[in-house]
Amino acid sequence: MNDKLDLLFYEKQYLEKGYKFIAGMDEAGRGPLAGPVTAACCIMDLSHIISGINDSKKIPGKKREVLFNSITDNAFSYRIADIDNNIIDEINILEATKKAMKIASGNLAIKPEIIFIDAVKDNFGVPSLSLIHGDALSYSIAAASILAKVHRDDLMKKYAELYPEYGFEKHKGYGTKLHIEMLKKYGPCPIHRKTFIKNFFK
Asked: How many domains does the chain have?
């Protein structure tokens, strides 16, 4: 299920029920050792389908950036929220993800009638539908996944300029061999998640 017709399966069901404002929501950055977790929520114009939208992990970086601009230009409303590493350490990654999602969905200019969410379940103040691998099943979630991924990648590139020794521009904070080597060589920097890296320093 990877073309735009398949990706509209759930949207069509709810459009037929009379829903107009359907939001998609996803996160980026739950797994990295450094940086924030990012959530994006967007209400797409379903009468104007953007070609190429799919699970962000399946799209090359340059194309993701082009799609990011198309999504932000054409969405009825969108919001992106970051929760930093200090809060992740304080409340854990799942709660930090939910916090980012609540900020993103709660600050849309238009209140959605339902939110399609990739996997996460919680009370977001409006009805929601949790879909496992939702970014590969729903156009709206896939659009949100692109917003979250591109936004977070751009942030990590900026952090790479502040902390060049770690190579954040290459791995975006994920636990690659290079990142772990640099982490052990230089120790953690202010954006590392202490609860994620503690096993490297026993």
From this structure: 1
